[in-house]
């Protein structure tokens, strides 16, 4: 946990922004996997962590702005629990660690919420994403789960996004610590990129590194030689010479700050010519995009710069043609990169996605595109110092998408479909780094993970 003052300050800022009513923040509960006592790995809600820091299940909080009071709800453990879980701090002890003076048992929640209802006060809550939280909200607030997202407090969402978007120095230090683990995960994965190894061998080792750092994966790892499937979680393939191994994985620090990197390595340690050509194009798109990052520039424009770099490279290979500005404007590049350049990162790997992507990534000035590909960009708005975000361009050859567009003659002025046949088994390449926006520019977070063709080939070859 950070020191008490951090949480007091965050809640004070929140109160000043939301101004009136009560704020109800619900922590997570343990969620059953296949029977009630066999639960998924515990993960606290990130908003609860941000304002209250307490990494324990079945806690909730109310910030009563009008009466300037804060409450934490939770049950102290019984002797039965102690037998199974060992001694646990009391709710009051935990609350005092984060500067909260009032605690009540879980059952007190109903009464406090009912009081607020009866006195006609505004109850601010955030959009729930877990079934258990939806059931609780329905029982406390009488709002059907299907309606809760719509009735969540826009003032609260906007205030939380404003606060969590800017990472403070102690958060950056925590992120940097996690980056050391990320470096070890990715360099280890690269060294394992050899014929005969299974994807699951790599997946197991890198998850182990995350766990042994005291954290956990920040999302289910993507470890695949079929990188054209963007979120490929199948780990059963055996690596063979000539394959590309795409590893998109991150860790969480013990305080749950995330990392998110992707590297694509040639199995056996030598890119083929065709792989190298595409790799260099994606790398150029990534480096150019990173270099363009500074406060005041929009991520949408940097996304389009990466797309422009990609199409220019693909034109050089004869895969695209025509007016490249028009190709990007109309979205023809999305055949090869049907996703956005990146997203905010912090306590969540896709930071605050539970609050609504448009609140996090867009504003009155920058709106989401409705063109296929560019529409998937999660972050479009202007950078501000303190933002942490990913830059992750890629180039994929997705046979089903190519066939479909080809049959529709879609963007036939920009795409040389006849030249794509040799790429049908290519797979995909993505390169991803985590970037901190500084006062005047940016910083790539963490110790550099090998990224150039030469660096990656050398690392793999040295380990053979
Ligand atoms: N979680 C995959 C990515 O955003 O990189
Ligand atoms: Mn990633
Ligand atoms: Mn990412």
Q: How would you characterize this protein structure?
A:
The protein has helices at residues 4-18, 46-52, 79-85, 91-97, 108-118, 131-141, 145-151, 154-165, 169-191, 199-212, 273-291, 299-316, 324-330, 357-361, 399-407, 453-462, and strands at residues 22-26, 32-35, 38-39, 60-64, 69-73, 102-104, 123-125, 216-217, 222-224, 244-249, 251-252, 261-266, 388-391, 394-396, 428-430, 433-437, 442-444. The chain has 464 residues and is α+β, with helices and mostly antiparallel strands. It has two domains: 4-165, 3-Layer(aba) Sandwich (Creatine Amidinohydrolase, Chain A, domain 1); 169-463, Creatine Amidinohydrolase (Alpha-Beta Complex). The strands form six sheets. Strands 6-5-4-1-7 form a five-stranded mixed beta sheet, with helices on both faces. Strands 9-10-12 form a three-stranded antiparallel beta sheet. Strands 13-16-17 form a three-stranded antiparallel beta sheet. Helix 9 (169-191) packs antiparallel against helix 10 and helix 11 (273-291) runs antiparallel to helix 12. The chain is globular.
